[in-house]
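Record type: ASSEMBLY
Status: queued
Input:
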Amino acid sequence: MANKFDISIRAEQEYAVLETEGYLNDALGEQLSQKAQDLIEKGYTQLVINLANTALINSIGISILIEIIEALDEREGTLNFCGLSATQERTFRMMAIAKYAGIFPDEKTAVADFQ
Amino acid sequence: MPTSSAEETIQRLIFSLSELEQLGQTLISGHSNFNVSSKTYLRITLGTLQVTRGAILCYHPTDNYLTVAASAPDIDSTPIDIEPEEVTSFLDCSHIEIDTPPEGLHSFINRNADLINGAAMHRLWVPLKIHDEFLGILGLGEFLGREKLEEWEQELLTILAHQISIAIAYSQIVEGIQSEKFRLFMLAESAPQICQLLQPEDAAEQVLHQAVALLDANMGCLMLVRPQQQILELLDAFPKSIISDNGENIQSISLKEIMGLPESEEKTALNMLGSVVEEGRTNRCSANLDDVFGGRNLMVGPIQGRDGDILGVLVVGDKEERGGRTLEFTEEDEMLLDSFAKQAGVAIENAHLHQEALEARELQSEMEEARKIQENLIPDTLPEIPGYEVAGYYEPRGPVGGDYFDCIELPHGGWGLSIADVSGKGMQAALLMATLRAGLLSEISSSRGREDSESIDMNDELINMAMTLNSLLYVSGTEEKYATFFYSHLNPETDILTSLNGGHNPPLIVRKDGNIQWLGQEIGGLPLGMFPNEMVPTIAEYQAEQITLESGDVVVYYTDGVTETVNVDDDFYDDDRLESDAISCANNDATSICDFIHKSVIDFQGDADQFDDLTLLVLRKK
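Status: finished
Output:
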C-alpha cells in the first residue's frame, strides 16, 4: 500500500540536515535510520532532523528516532529536531526524547545551536 | 590442539572480567535500544573469546522469524523464518555444534545452509533465552588458534550469552513500555485535538490519520452511514491511493448487501463491516489480501454518536512491525480502536453540529437580507387613481416567501395592478422577485400597456408581456423557482379591466349588487418561469380577460397566505371565508376593506403558527 515518503539530506561541513516527508512509520523510519547511520559512519556527529513535512508518526517511527539518538550518543554527538507540530513536540517531551535531543522551531535555530 | 598457558589464561580472564564490566555498563548506560548496543555486545563477546566471526540474531515471536541485530563480518540481513518446534529445540540446548546438530534443527540448518556456509561461517550457536523465553541466537565461528572453545571459555560464553539475553529482554521491555506510553499519550492527546476541529472534512481526516498512527497501521478508511440512502459512504482514505486502486468498490457500499450476512468461518471485509454496523462492536480478522480495501489483517471499529447510533466505521489494516512485516491486530489493539472510535464519534458529531449551526446562522442572515430586499420592493404608498380607491397590505410571516404587489401608473396611460408569489424561500426567492419586478417595470414602460391606439389589442399586449416575463424568469431561476402572477391593466376612462393569470389565485370581485365573480378563473395560465416559452403553448397558453367595472365594484387580489391561513384546529381560512368577509365589508372604502379582511384572517388564525406571508391588494370603483 503506497504511502508517499521521501528523505532529503543536506550535508554541510560540520553538520547534516535530514528532512523527512510523509508518514514516519517503519518504511520511512528505516530509511531515515540508515541515512543517519551512514552520516554517523562518515564522521557527522551533529545532525538535524526536520519533521516539518511529516504530520504522522507511529510508535515504530518513535522507536527509530530514539535509536538514532542513542547511536549519536555513542559518538558523543548531538541530534536536534525542528519543524515539529505542537502535538509532536508534546509527544517528544512526554517520551523523554526532548531530554536527549534538542527541539527547535526551525532549521536555522536548530543549526545555530551547534555553534 | 594447543592449550593456553596458565599465564595466558589468567590474562584473558582478567580481560574477560573487564569486558563483562563493560557489558554491564552498556546495559545500564541508558542505551536500551538493542539495535544500537548489539554491536558493542558482539564486539565484546568476540574479543573476550578470541573469535573472529559472529552474529546476534533476534527472535520475533509474533511472526516467528529472526533478524540480524549485529554481525561480523556483515551478513545478509533478510529475516530468517523459524518454526515453533525449532524454537523448542533451541530452548532444549545450551549450545549447538553446527556439524552435529540435534535432530530437531536439521531442517533449520539445511534451510539456512547458504548463510551458515557463506559469509557467517558459524561453528557454534548459543540460544539466547531467559527461562523458557527464546530471544535469539548468538552465532560464533573461527576460533582463533584452536578448533573449539575450552571448557572455561564455554562457561564464559554462557555468562556472555546470558548478559546478551538480559540486554535483549530489557530492550524489548523498554520498547514495549515506550510503545504503550506513546499509544496512551496519543489516545489522550487526540481526543481534545480532534474534538476542536469544526469542519467535518478536517475532523474526518484527523480521525483517520490518528487511528492509523495509533494502531501502527499502514492503511485506513473512514466510512459514514447514510441512513436515507442505506449505504456506507467513503469519507476519507489513507493513503489516498486506496480510492484510486479500489474505485467504486468502496465509494459506496450498500448496507442491505452487508448486513445480516450469515456467519462464515473466514471473515471478509464486507461481513465485518456489516456486523460492526449491526452490533456496534469492534471486529478484526486476519484475512489475506482483501479485495475491498486492498489491505491485510483488517480491523473495523464502530463510530457512535452520543445517543449510541452508529454514525460510521473506522477501518485500519496492514499493522506493521519493525522490519517491515505485517502483523495481526491484537485484543489490546481492538480495545484501543474501540476507545479511539468513541472519541471519533464525538468529534465527528461535534463538527457536524457546528456545521449545521453555521448553516442555520448563514440561512438566518440570508433570510434577513432577503427580507430587506423584499420589503424594499413592496410600495410604501399607493397612487391615487381617478375614480377609484386602491389599498394594499403586506405582512411577512415566517421565512421569506417572496410575496409582491404593486400599482403603477403607466407612462402611456392606464394603471397596472400586479400581485405575485415567488416559490421557495430566502435570497433566491427575493432575487427572483426583484427580477420579476424589474422585468415588469421594463415591460410596462415600453410599448406594452399602451392603449392610445385602437390598433393595439390589450389582450395580446398582456399575453406578450407574460411570455417575456416567463422567459426572463425561466433563464434566471432553476426548475423549482417560479412565480405565480396576476396582472390587471385598468383604464379608468373606460373602466375596462384587462387581466392575465399566471397560475395565481383568482382575485375576487364583489359587484355592487353583492354578486360574486372570481376573476381570471377561466383563463388560468402557467406560473412564470416554470417552463421555457416553447413549451408554454403545448401545456397552457396565457390568455387575457376583460371586464368592465361599475361604481361600487370591489376587486380583492390576494396571495395564498390569506386563504391558506390555518387556525389551531388546522382548518383553512379558505375561499368561502374570504368571499363572505369581502361581501360583508364591500360597501366600505378600499382601505377599510383591506383592514377588515386582514383582521378577520388574524382573528381566524388565533394562536396557530403561520409560515406564509399575507398580502392583499384591493381596488374599488367609487
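Annotation: The interface with chain B takes residues 1-4, 23, 25-27, 30, 55-60, 62-64, 66-67, 70-71, 73-74, 87, 90-91, 94-95 of chain A (CB under 8 Å).
Annotation: The helical segments of chain A are 26-41, 59-74, 86-94, 97-100, 107-112.
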